[in-house]
Specification:
Structural class: mainly alpha
Oligomer: single chain
Helix content: 55-70%
Strand content: under 5%
Number of helices: 16
Length: 353
Amino acid sequence: MQCQYLSPSVSGSRPTSASLNGIAHVQASNSGASDVSSTATISNPSPLPLVGVHPRPLVDLDSIELLHHWQTITCTSLSPELDQQDVWRTFAVKQGLSHPFVLYQLLAIAALHLATCRPERQDEYTTRSTELQNGALSMFHQVEGTDETNCIAMFLFSSLLGVHLFADRAPIRGIGFSEYLDHSLRCVTLLRSVMKLSLKEFYPFFMDTEIKSLMRAPDAQPPYEGIPAECRHLEDLIKESDLGPSSVTAYNAALDRLFWLFALTEVPTVARGTARWPIGWPVQLPDEYIMLLNQRRPEALIILAYFGVVLHLYRESWMIGDTGASLIRAVNAQVGTFWDPWMAWPLQMIDST
């Protein structure tokens, strides 16, 4: 995404008591000089009382910069649909005033986005983003229970957390394939743990609220159309492997969600710039599949690599970037050469597209 936010950050010194007194001195001197009937010279006047001058700024300009960037630029990258953008631009901010963990998290994402827009200040914005997200998570974990008074805020937070986990490159700089895979699985686990607190049982309630547009999804039902043949061959992987019934059920459920994602996004036929649907994929996976992933079972990892293809085709999104390619290479390094036939297509996709 081309960043259009070009205004420099507000910097420089603010007026001090001494400088304001100096201005008052000049003004008093000028006033005396203009009085032709006076022969008195004003020197070293007593400082004028300063009203409203505080030892710290009354406005946090850094946070205002982040909020402005969120409402003018970042929110438009979350969805191509205008009504959904409006939810993120205004309603999410309003929710954040009552539930600060939402506000902290969206400001954290704005800081991450600014880090990509202004690489010369990348470290500064990334540090700020980490601080804000840590604060958001701390406040979120203090919430006791989910009900109709806070479920919308928790849903918004969990959605924003998914964006942050995909977009944050700081934890993966300079790490190897094994560490990258560990990081990816930790992110999936964290996202699922948060989303489970705020989703399923409140769906009917959400449909009658300001976030109902976020619940909207294209109708994609099995048998899914437009699935790449190489992706459909994963069904043979499950059939040919020596697996127990519970593993087969888990893998088939994960494949169903993968096929759904390919059908919904229409990749690789259409390249995408917003990452709403891929970010939601990990939440839909069965617990048994997540357990197999954490065990580094090859079949589970290969399915994850094919999900990496979807991410790679969303690489124009600032949130995704090279995440898909990195994930595919990490899986390939983990599974070994025996599984080369199954890894051929994901590797080909990142080399040729």
